[in-house]
Amino acid sequence: MTQPPAPASPADGLISAGLRHLRTLAHAVSHPSHSPTPLFADAPKRWQRLLPYGAVLVLVCTLLPVTITVLNNDYGVPGGLAGAIATAQAVPLLLIGHRPLQAWWIILPASVVGALFLLDGPDTHSNWPWPPPVIVGYLFLMVALALRETRRTLIGVWLVTCLTGLVLGQLYPAESDGTNLLMIVLSAVVLVVGGAVRERGDAQRRLIEQETISEAERSRSTLLEERTRIARELHDIVAHHMSVITVQADSAPYRVGDLSPAAQEEFASIAASARESLTEMRRLLSVLRSEDSAGGERAPQPGLHRLQQLVEATVRAGVPAELSLAADVGPLPQTIDLSAYRIVQEALANVVRHAPGATTRVSVRSDGTDLTVLVVNGPAAESTSGRASPVEAGGAGGHGLVGMRERVRLTGGTLDTGPLPDGGFRVAARIPIAAKGSPSS
After folding, report:
1. pTM
2. Is 53 exposed, middle or buried (0-12, 13-18, 19+ CB in 10 A)?
3. Using one digit for the tens of pLDDT, what is the confidence trace for 71-117?
4. Angle of helix 132-146 relative to helix 100-118, nearest 10 degrees?
5. Which of 77, 174, 212, 262 could form a disulfide with 71 if both were Cys (CB 3.0 to 4.6 A apart)?
6. Cβ neighbours of residue 368 closer than 8 Å, sequence gap 6 or more
7. DSSP letter string, 348-378
8. DSSP state, 323?
């Protein structure tokens, strides 16, 4: 009979957890966080090439002769050997623009080998195991790592740096004068500061991306809301004309005498088709208004005849506004009449919202072919009183330029918007009066 396995002790659990963390850190140190990309990825493309390579090339060209001179003069290392050690410690820095972790794997062993060669020098040397050029180059390498790698990788790199320095200090205590501890402290400071800068930059980039996505979603939602609103208004317009067709078709046999049976049957068919279309449209309207059936619009649709009331409401909201409605603007198709009103309504609401106190002029005129709607406001006043909300200034719903463009596109017109040199804003819409598909009044 087999014995049950003995329960694991707390020490075994700690050892297992420690081994897992060590394996994780070893993997982080041995694998870059992402594929090689320029260190200055946010800079313009030509600077992405020049900035890393130019700065690093200057650093390497400075460190290489300085390291050779220090090794040869201060530590008594022969010229050829000093050149080889300096090359192994400085030239890999050319990789820090794209592959800093790979450069670290070359520079750290080269620094350790160089420290071992320094043991054969004069007995009275200082700055062992890390000479000043090694510390300078290593700190630049830490900066590149901190700006690129993850926190876990940075912790692994720092722990390996600590372990290397402490081991060298324990193996050769008489030679060490504390530069190993100095390297540990300075690398920790550089990694913490550089990592904080990188994480802050990453957070800002994520925030910008999220704001961009939110703005796109907001615009898409606004577009869908405005299209739904237009669909409801079009339904009301078309339903009115379909009702008129039904009444006329039903009353034709009584209003027109001597109609043949075929004509009466044709009128009856027209009336039945119109009633069927009305029924289908009412079903569609119930779907469109299902989300706001309690507060859906029930009032008759407004038109240009209500522009004066709209301008007066805007004046009460603290915006000095003037209306110029040409006398030759005759009866318009209901779709165009409603669209023109909504464009003016939204433009005035935007003035109240974004340029309170700005003098605003509204002009509506027609040349018989096109209807021109122009809303121009000056810069916002420095101080206003009695300021009202956009709803009080006309209740345009806050859809802005998105709603205006949908209105104009619906009627086949054009919309021109943009800032003025004096700081104001201009909204100009040109709507064909005989737009294709516009139901006549």
Report:
1. 0.48
2. middle
3. 888 888 888 899 999 999 999 998 887 888 999 999 999 999 998 88
4. 160
5. 77
6. 328, 433
7. HHHHHHHSTT--EEEEEEE-SSEEEEEEEE-
8. E
